[in-house]
Amino acid sequence: MENTLSRKDLMRKIQELSFCAVDLNLFLNTHPYDAQALQDYQYVLNSLRQLKDLYNQNYGPLMNFGEAYVTGNSWKWVAEDEKWPWEGDMVI
Amino acid sequence: MWVYEKKLQFPVNIKKPNLKYANAVLTQFGGPNGELAAALRYLTQRINMPTSKSKAVLNDIGTEELAHLEMIQAIVYQLTRDASPEDFLKEGLQGYYAVWDNHIFPSSPTGEPFMAAYINNTGDPISNLHEDLAAEAKARATYEQLLNLIDDPDVTKPLSFLREREVVHFQRFGETLDDLQLHEGMKTQFVVKKP
């Protein structure tokens, strides 16, 4: 998949789909046989995985502890020119 | 086991610092109906829940509360990061500055540090779920009070999102309570053990 979005827009898309995943997950916890919700969850999951891979490839790891792959020749998790989420917009 | 995701659940980008707002929002960090209390309440209660469904509900809502805690931390941080001692004096918040400078700390707006007593768990899953419903309702009310105080859309947008989540959690806890009362948890609900 080619990246056609700005970093900010890609992050927003990931936030939107992650939110869908959280909300559907909570719904499925109390409605485990709801076919529509199961289908929606699977759909969200597939798109989310693609976008997270795209982010990982272009901007470094989104997750720690073995949940994201290494890109380039350094440990980007600690890159000093990267903002952390609580510092505001990640695009500098 | 938890894994960190380097993103907020909902964006927080505050351009105008405001110590008064920060002081009010602080209640959702270290206050009685705050996100820290919520996360610890649910992640503790889940351990003794009787059904897989109730364990999952408490585990997952408790986990989402950690993401909300992070959003509240981000709001307080962005409202205070550039504040000087003079700014704190101007707003009458010199007591906070004296103890913590402009660093965030889980206390109530009036300075009581976070207390585990806010969690209010007991040994009965049904009672605990009633507590959880009350906690979500009180957190929603707190967000409404904050929205009445705050004028800056950079702050009210994430607070409105958090308020909506309290409504959804209330709904899921209600379904979990029904499920325990009417189905799997029924057997133990009214049993009183003799001394």
Overview of this protein structure:
The complex is a heterodimer of chains A (92) and B (195). Chain A has one domain. Chain A is 53% helix and 0% strand. Chain A is built from 2 helices and no strands. In chain A, helix 1 (7-30) packs antiparallel against helix 2 (35-59). Chain A starts with 6 loop residues before the first helix and ends in a 33-residue tail after the last helix. The relative contact order of chain A is 0.15. Chain B has helices at 19-25, 27-30, 35-45, 52-80, 85-90, 94-100, 125-149, 153-182, 186-189. Chain B starts with 18 loop residues before the first helix and ends in a 6-residue tail after the last helix. Chain B has 9 helices and no strands. Chain B is an all-alpha fold. In chain B, helix 1 (19-25) packs antiparallel against helix 4 (52-80), helix 3 (35-45) runs antiparallel to helix 7 and helix 4 packs antiparallel against helix 8 (153-182). The mean pLDDT of chain B is 94. At the A-B interface, helix 1 of A face helix 4 and helix 8 of B.
Ordered list of secondary-structure elements with their pairings:
The complex is a heterodimer of chains A (92) and B (195).
Chain A: H1 7-30, H2 35-59
Chain B: H1 19-25, H2 27-30, H3 35-45, H4 52-80, H5 85-90, H6 94-100, H7 125-149, H8 153-182, H9 186-189
Helix pairs in contact in B: 1-4, 3-4, 3-7, 4-8, 7-8
- What's the CATH H-level superfamily name of chain B? Ferritin, core subunit, four-helix bundle
Per DSSP, the total helix count of chain A is: 2
Number of structural domains of chain A: 1
Main sheet properties of chain A? none
Percent helix range of chain A: 40-55%
What share of the residues of chain B does DSSP label as strand, in percent? under 5%
Q: Rg of chain A to the nearest angstrom?
A: 15 Å
> Would you report the number of β strands of chain B?
0
